[in-house]
Amino acid sequence: MSPQEAEQRALVLRLLSLLSQYPDGELVAERARLASVVAALPGPWATCELGAFVGWFGAQEADALARHYVEMFVLRRKSSLYLTYYLHGDARRRGMALLTLARSYRAAGWDADGGELPDRLPVVLEFAALAGPGAGEAPLRRHRRALELIHGAPTEAEFPYRHLLSTLLTLLPPATEADRAAVAKLAAEGPPDEEVGLDPYGTHGHGAYEEGGFAPTATFLPPMPAVPTRIPPAATSPRKESRP
Hints:
By secondary structure, this protein is mainly α. The chain has a single domain, classed as TorD-like. The chain has helices at about 5-20, 25-30, 30-40, 50-60, 60-75, 85, 90-105, 120-130, 140, 145-150, 160-170, 175-190. The longest helix has 17 residues, at about 5-20. It is globular and about 45 Å long. Mean pLDDT is about 80; it is low at about 190-244.
């Protein structure tokens, strides 16, 4: 990968991080600027999935955007943006996964502040943009099955955020037959009936769920509005910035 390609990849990941955040007033106010950044991307990026999303995003009323986001990512358990939710139904195992993510961020010199859990997709995407394709994108590769499930979950409703997931999945290694079978099983079986509480960082817990299963309702932590990162200008490489 050339330096220019790495820069473009990081910019796409940064855009995905921003666009997958809760559409608060600051993010909505930057829609025209985001659309211009997408339009300036080289190759197929601007004319395919990202272009389709920013076209929809820019045409909606702010209240409608907020309602749609809550319906898709808060009220639907199969499209939660907390990636470890899909892999670890057991509180202790999920807590350890959260700690591992947080430690990998700190080891790379990045502090994911803002009160977000480290497995929330916009946070994972921002880390990938800042830390690069190797260690930075490792959490995305590790949770590819969760991303596939989110991408295909709300089939009964209009889901423009699918364009963001489609863009992200093209950056990851292709899905294997085992991946597809695991995603189908997750979609068909849903969460187990047993309810187990979740300590956010796994200091206690009980019960065990099969690898790749859903956590029960009580273990789900609803999304909080993400703290927006700075909007990257079209002509500059993304870089680490302090949050507002």
